[in-house]
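Build the 3D complex.
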Amino acid sequence: MKRPFLALLWKELRLGLPGWLLTAGVMAAWVGSLLTRLGVWEREAVAGLTLVPVLVLVPIRAFWLSFQGIWQEWSRSHALLLLTLPVPGWWITGAKLLAVWIQSVGHLVLGLLGTGIVFWVAALTPMQQLPTTVRPQVAAHLLHTFSYFILAYILSLFLPMVLAQFAALVGRLAPRLQLAAAGVAFAVGGWLMLRLGAVVGVLLRWVPEITVVGFSYQQQLSSLQVVSQAYHVQVAPALGALVVLAGLWWLGSYLLERDAEV
Amino acid sequence: MPVVDRRPWILLTLAILTLVAVADIWVGPRLIDAFVEGFVVQEGPRTVLWP
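Done.
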């Protein structure tokens, strides 16, 4: 990657730092307030609630920042400067997306850290009821499945981000009713992703399915039974949706480069 | 070379796509269901780990 792209990315990251810190502070306050609930609420519930910011706040923030990242360039009349830069449109849109994505992944790490802190403070040991001989096996499978969830999360962040950026770019191209045009573009983008994603997904069925393993344990009379259940999941539609999202991102970048007027 | 303002074409395309989307959602297979159906989940082996 060329240096101007990194310069753009660095600029976006620097601009996003105060907001990132603010959100990190909110997340820390959330975990702090949950720690006071230990002993009042179920420990498992408190641990689960630590993930609320990651599941709700971070995707909404990613959506908002991706939209505003484009929208405000026009509001603040920065777009003229941006468009005179001797760089392709996708460098500008890509740097903005990547910056928000990096920030969101940072928040994910913080969120997981918060969950870990609650687990530690509450002395929650998820596998304490399992016999010691099966714990390594269960832990390995859980880690494997958990890594898929993390991968799915960080990839799915692109969904609100790309749709928001695409909507903002199309909205800004409208001579009037820009916000309404952005709303329509968002809806049409979502429709394209679902419909075309399913079609592209059919073409990608050759991609190997992934296997996740779930566990259950039940007390049977006096003995404990631990059972594992494998699930094979076809991921082609998700990849199809990602391909369509990449197409929307390219289209938005193309529009920015070719058609945007300040 | 004449300067072409592409904005009307972009908005026209958006309007056409909106109509197609509405028609598709109206008469086509259910949008979310058709997408989610692709995520075929097959149950694999069930193993008793303990005892």
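Chain A has a mean pLDDT of 88.
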